[in-house]
Amino acid sequence: MAATNAGGSSVPLEQRGTLEEQSILDTASWQPVLQIVHVTDMHVKDMSTNPDHPLQGRRRSLARFLKRLAEQSQEWDDGTQGHYPLAPEAFKRFLIDWKARDPVWRSVPVWLVDTGDRTAFGDAASIQLGERLLAMWQAALGGCEVRTLFGNHDAWPGTQPGLAPWAAASQQALVAQQPGWNAGDWLTSPLSVKLPGQQASIRLYALNSVCWSLLSNVLAVGEVDSASQSTFVARLRFDAAQSERGLRILALHHPVAFPWTTDESHKAGVVPQMRLLHDEDIARWLGNSANDPAGVGPLAHLILSGHTHLAHPAPGCSGDVVDVHQGLLGPYQIQLVGGSLMLNKSRRSAQGRAAPSTRAHDQFAPSSVDGDRCQAQILRLMVAPELPGAISLLRFPVRSVDGTLYKAMPGDGIVLHYGTP
């Protein structure tokens, strides 16, 4: 496929897709509009971080015993090992090279989007280090727009939450003080870019999915409460009244749609863990069958999340978004889940390539996930004057084996739809 710049010249872009997709896309004059660098689950761990430090007496001894037990049994608690120390600079070098690589895309707006779990333990030193790393990558991308969410690990009070239940309130106050971590601000001032030649735009919103109750925090489950849902709908009503239309992107930490295996989503096959509670209800709500706001279609067309340490769908997804089925999301919606950016160990990632029969079912096509370590994804969005209401999305997986060198994989393409003029 070729993207056409304002001067009419075209530059080939990597893409893998079906012959039908190629015939549709190659005949269109696609114009670059936006790049999104999506990172998630950084799990930054500052050198000074000591999860035993907030504990006293027997709790400290218990924490050390449990850690030794986990190490001996190789049952690592995902996300507590922290990041590869060389990864931040390696990712910066990759971003500088990526930004300069393609002349057609150098002047196109870039959004750096972080969907949570910036830290391993939620301690102040790691939060601040993670903020500095995001600022470094922002500079590498030419001073782009940045949006960040906090995840369930950022809600940890500097240690395993079950070992310090008294600290939840103070941790919630610490998170509330961090700039950019209020999902409500995303709704108040969503990032937006106009689509050339159309009375439409691409807009980015967010919802919080992190629970603060002790049991929910320990089990890493998420929830989108009714108040947040109402606030989101109110924002979209306002946009509709202002004749704002176009593609809506929604970011939240926990995926709305993911092909969980039973072992991943339930402890002992019974107690919910990891999963977004009532995720099927949230998917139905995002489909907007109630038609509120009226006439806008689905509340979100593209959903970006993390949390799982497994990228979904795996590379190779292509075609028209209506051919992708993900849980109870509608035919004009797609969920893209990013893998962990620079986590140095993850049992979930190591076991990510579960046998197809354990994930595949009627509600998910494709059901594949990618458990490769150290991942990000770059999304390139384009429009064509002759295809109003359609957006071409090129997704480039970015990988590193050990955090020393990041490389972009071949891209895949999806045609999204946001409605007709």
Keywords:
alpha/beta; disordered N terminus
How many separate domains? 1
The CATH topology name reads: Purple Acid Phosphatase, chain A, domain 2
Q: Can you tell me the CATH architecture?
A: 4-Layer Sandwich
Report Rg.
Answer: 21 Å
Put the structure in a nutshell.
With 421 residues, the chain is α/β, with parallel strands linked by helices. The protein has helices at residues 19-26, 57-73, 87-101, 124-140, 168-176, 183-188, 214-219, 226-241, 262-265, 279-287, 347-350, 356-359, and strands at residues 2-4, 10-12, 31-39, 110-114, 145-148, 191-194, 201-206, 246-251, 266-267, 271-272, 302-305, 319-320, 325-326, 334-337, 364-365, 375-383, 390-399, 407-408, 412-417.
What's the SSE blueprint?
Blueprint: E1 2-4, E2 10-12, H1 19-26, E3 31-39, H2 57-73, H3 87-101, E4 110-114, H4 124-140, E5 145-148, H5 168-176, H6 183-188, E6 191-194, E7 201-206, H7 214-219, H8 226-241, E8 246-251, H9 262-265, E9 266-267, E10 271-272, H10 279-287, E11 302-305, E12 319-320, E13 325-326, E14 334-337, H11 347-350, H12 356-359, E15 364-365, E16 375-383, E17 390-399, E18 407-408, E19 412-417
Parallel strand pairs: 3-4, 4-5, 7-8, 8-11, 11-14, 12-19
Antiparallel strand pairs: 1-2, 3-16, 6-7, 9-10, 13-15, 16-17, 17-18, 17-19
Helix pairs in contact: 3-4
